[in-house]
Amino acid sequence: WDIGSGVILPGLAEWRQLLGTTFNETIVPHLVRRLAAHLASTFEVAPDDQEIAPLEHVLAWKEFLSPRILGQLLVAEFFPKWHAVLYQWLTFAAANFVEIGNWFSWWQSVFPDELNAVPAVAAEWERGLATINLALDLGDRVATDLPPPTAGPARPIAATTTTPAKAPPSAKTKPAVEATFKDVVEEWCTEHSLLLMPLREAHA
């Protein structure tokens, strides 16, 4: 499904009702990875010509994700880009703090209230406000003394799955456990986005 096509995915609401809590366990992890990859690859912070469609594509799925999960996604994929641009703007020789303040307030208004209320998201806004206040205090020394933003959180959300390198054998390594038929079937189902549900019936 193309994330940019919106959330009108045929039958999704019915599947959510049918699967109940299993829906979150089955769909949400895949959805979060897709949304994170979408933000990472298509969204940039650009004060002079801001395109927010990629962010709107992600926020449109908020009914299928809890505010906490969506907030963590934005902390990982949106805020590192946002803080980097804020820093560049503040250290620019002709920085206009009125424009920066308006830009800050506008970005907060883009996020729904329930998302801004998530502690992790609120902490990022506070961090940005602290950076602006520090820049004001530094005055003419802002270009040299304002510390750059620290690295954001680890980004396992958007990372593609890779096969880890095999560790060299050692005397302490436990012998590999032979996979059962059930293990093979479960792995195949996972690769094909299928849910394996045992019937728990004795069958010839």
Description:
The protein is mainly alpha-helical and 204 residues long. Helix content is 55%, strand content 0%. Helix 5 runs parallel beside helix 8. The longest helix has 22 residues. It starts with 11 loop residues before the first helix and ends in a 13-residue tail after the last helix. About 8% of the residues have low confidence. This is GCF C-terminal domain-containing protein.
Characterize this entry briefly.
With 204 residues, this protein is an all-alpha fold. The chain has ten helices and no strands. This is GCF C-terminal domain-containing protein.
What is the ordering of alpha helices and beta strands?
HHHHHHHHHH
Largest sheet: none
Tally of helical runs:
10
- Through-space gap between termini: 39 Å
Rounded radius of gyration (Å): 23 Å
Biased composition (Low complexity): 152-173
InterPro entries: GCFC_dom, TFP11/STIP/Ntr1
Region (Disordered): 147-173
Domain GCF C-terminal: 1-86
